[in-house]
Design brief:
Elements (H helix, E strand, L loop, with lengths): L4 E2 L8 H9 L2 E3 L10 E5 L5 E5 L3 H8 L10 E15 L2 E12 L6 E4 L24 E5 L5 E8 L6 E7 L3 E8 L13 E8 L8 E4 L16 E3 L1
Parallel strand pairs: 2-5, 11-13, 12-14
Antiparallel strand pairs: 1-7, 3-4, 5-6, 6-7, 8-9, 9-12, 10-11
Length: 232
C-alpha cells in the first residue's frame, strides 16, 4: 500500500526537478544492470517473510520514465543497482528489494520497489448499493503512527464538500465516501471535484486492509501530489 517510489533523501532540489518527476520525464545517461535474480525476499520485523518475483532494472526504469525529452525539465539517471527499501504493506512495514537509481546532482538515490505485489485477498464485504456518494478515488497517505489515513474523495460542484465515514473491524478498515450539505446557489456542473480527506482511526491500521464500502474492493493507492488534506 505504500509509495513504491521514494525520492532522494531531502527531496528534489528545484521546482524544475519536481515538474520533471511529475511529468515522469527522465533521461538515461548510463548503463542499467542486467536483470539479476528472478525472485527476492520481502521481510517484516516480526520475522515473517515471503518470496516475490522481481522486475529487472530496465523494466523498472520504463515504469518510472514515461517520457524522455531532454529539452524540457528532466531528471538524469546515470546508473542503478539492487538494494532495499522500507514499504508500507497491508501487513505493516516491510523491507523489499528495490532498484536504486542514481540521479545526476543528487547524493542519495531514487528508490523504486522491484518486487511484484501479491494478489490482494478476497474482500470480506460486498459493494454497497443504492446509497448516495461516490467511490473513493485513491489512498494517498498513511500516517507514520498508522492512526490516520488520507484519501481522495469526490464531490459535486453544488454540495459542501466530501466526508468519509469509517467502520473498523479486526481485519479491515471500511471507508465510505459521502457529500456534505447541498448548495442551492452557484453554477452546478456534472464534473466531480477531488478533495483530500484525512480520517482518524481508533487504532493503527497495522495489517488490516483498507476497503471502499461502495466497491467492496481495496482502496487503490497513489501518493499525494499537490493536494491539501482536510480533517474528518
Amino acid at each position: 500500500m505504500g509509495e513504491v517510489v521514494q525520492l532522494p533523501r531531502g527531496g528534489l532540489h528545484s521546482q524544475a526537478d519536481k515538474q520533471a518527476y511529475g511529468d515522469q520525464n527522465f533521461v538515461l545517461r548510463g548503463e542499467l544492470p542486467d536483470s539479476g535474480p528472478k525472485d527476492g525476499r520481502v521481510t517484516w520485523p516480526v520475522g515473517k517473510s515471503l518470496t516475490r518475483p522481481l522486475v529487472g532494472a530496465d523494466e523498472s526504469y520504463k515504469t518510472l520514465a514515461s517520457t524522455h525529452n531532454n529539452k524540457k525539465p528532466h531528471l538524469t539517471v546515470t546508473g542503478a543497482k539492487r538494494g532495499e527499501m522500507t514499504l508500507v504493506t497491508s501487513r505493516g512495514p516491510a523491507t523489499v528489494p528495490a532498484w536504486l537509481f542514481t540521479l545526476h546532482g543528487y547524493a542519495s538515490p531514487l528508490k523504486q520497489a522491484a518486487a511484484i505485489p501479491s494478489k490482494p485477498p478476497r474482500p470480506p464485504i460486498r459493494p454497497a448499493r443504492g446509497i448516495p456518494g461516490y467511490p473513493l478515488n485513491r489512498l494517498v497517505q498513511i500516517a507514520a503512527d498508522g492512526r490516520s489515513v488520507t484519501v481522495i474523495a469526490l464531490h459535486g460542484a453544488c454540495d459542501g464538500g466530501s466526508a468519509v465515514d469509517v467502520l473498523e473491524t479486526h481485519g479491515s478498515v471500511v471507508l465510505s465516501g459521502s457529500t456534505k450539505d447541498h448548495k442551492d446557489s452557484g453554477n452546478c456542473t456534472k464534473q466531480a471535484k477531488m478533495q483530500a480527506v484525512t480520517v482518524k482511526l481508533d487504532r493503527p491500521v497495522g495489517d488490516r486492509v483498507l476497503l471502499d464500502a461502495r466497491t467492496g474492493q481495496p482502496v487503490p493507492y497513489k501518493g499525494l501530489r499537490g493536494l491539501s488534506a482536510s480533517g474528518s
